[in-house]
Design a protein that fits this description.
The chain has twelve helices and 14 strands. With about 350 residues, the protein is α/β, with parallel strands linked by helices. The protein is globular and about 75 Å long. The structure holds adenosine-5'-triphosphate.
Length: about 350
């Protein structure tokens, strides 16, 4: 659906040159939530602004649904832009207009007749959960509500793709989660392709199907979120994954746990996407009633493709039963690492 080839953006000022986007090549499928992550200055904002030509590319191709956005002239560009919605970090609302009027704005620009405009606005208000706040002004809204207006406005002209530029970075964690849930709903209900840029791994983990990692203008790593989580190759990617997993921390506490348990075994279960932790532990407890399972600690993170992470479990019972329980777990997709055997 979106094909980006050899995309370059060089900013020039006097003798200074900054290569903000450096030979980016990506393919994004219809209906996908595609995340681009990178630290400040990596080129994410420039990249996303190239996609709707808020910036002009220095060279390269951006084909969205068969149309090369990079080479459109002014008139064609105006039309194409209506098919690309954008949500901004700081909402960019019109302060003298109500919620309803803000959402209607892109429809007015597109020349949508009044009756149709009103119907569409009503639909959007419902979709983003702003019923009852239609006549409020932006200054009377919370951050999350402002972003809901931003999202409704971006969807007004039924775009083919929604671009989100750090859409949750100005929000607190709880509101962030609500807005991310809304984006997932919209993606699923409308089968809408969403491209988002962020510096927060949490955003990628929670809603993205695939991710690209940017550094110094380049995409240094790309793939399914779960694959990238499990096998980060680049240093920068490892840093992002550590942000939410904290592996080093777990290795340190392992030693403490081993010292604590004198009977049974402490095992580390590695979840790689196929089974959820709760389902497995209750299933194995049911199968082996004579064995006790005690979850000691763990860090499991849910991605769009399943659970990923590790769980430390103390298993106690007779040697024979413990062995059978471990064998049972090993036969699922969960990898078992036996750390301790004292009996
Ligand atoms: N209009 C501009 N003129 C000159 N240089 C620019 C311009 N916009 C961005 N840059 C430079 O391009 C590089 C990439 O910036 P960009 O804002 O795209 O990165 P980013 O990953 O989005 O970071 P941030 O989250 O801090 O905005 C930086 O070195 C930045 O200084």
């Amino acid at each position: 659906m979106i094909s980006i080839k050899n995309l370059q953006k060089v900013f020039k000022s006097g003798t200074n040159q900054v290569q903000a986007v450096d030979d980016v090549n990506l393919n994004i499928e219809k209906g996908e939530i595609y995340g681009v992550i990178g630290y400040s200055g990596a080129g994410k904002s420039t990249f996303i602004r190239l996609l709707n030509r808020l910036e002009d590319p220095t060279s390269g191709e951006i084909v969205i649904d068969g149309e090369d956005i990079a080479n459109l002239r002014a008139g064609q560009l105006r039309k194409a832009r209506q098919e690309i919605g954008m949500v901004f970090q700081h909402f960019n609302l019109l302060w003298s207009r109500t919620v309803r009027e803000n959402i209607a704005f892109p429809l007015e620009i597109a020349g949508t007749p009044k009756q149709e405009r009103q119907e569409r606005v009503d639909e959007l208000i419902k979709l983003v959960g702003l019923t009852g706040r239609e006549d409020a002004y932006p200054s009377q809204l919370s951050g999350g509500q402002k972003q809901r207006v931003g999202i409704a406005r971006a969807l007004a002209n039924r775009p083919k793709v929604l671009l989100c530029d750090e859409a949750t970075s100005a929000l607190d964690p709880e509101t962030t989660d609500q807005i991310l849930d809304l984006l997932v709903n919209i993606n699923e209900q409308l089968d809408l392709t969403i491209i988002l840029i962020t510096h927060e791994m949490h955003v990628i983990r929670k809603i993205s199907h695939r991710v690209a990692v940017m550094e110094e203008g380049k995409v240094v790593e790309e793939g399914d979120v779960l694959d990238v989580f499990l096998h980060p190759k680049e240093k920068v990617t490892k840093r992002f994954v550590e942000q939410i997993m904290g592996d080093q921390e777990q290795d340190d506490t392992m030693e403490t746990m081993l010292a604590e348990y004198q009977t049974g075994q402490v095992v580390r279960l590695h979840f790689v996407g196929e089974k959820t932790n709760q389902a497995l532990i209750s299933e194995v407890s049911r199968e082996f009633p004579s064995v006790s399972f005690n979850i000691l600690q763990g860090k499991i993170t849910q991605t769009k493709k399943g659970a990923y992470g590790t769980l430390f479990v103390h298993i106690d019972g007779t040697d024979e039963d413990i062995k059978k329980a471990i064998q049972y777990i090993s036969e699922t997709s969960v990898e078992v690492e036996v750390n301790h055997n004292v009996s």
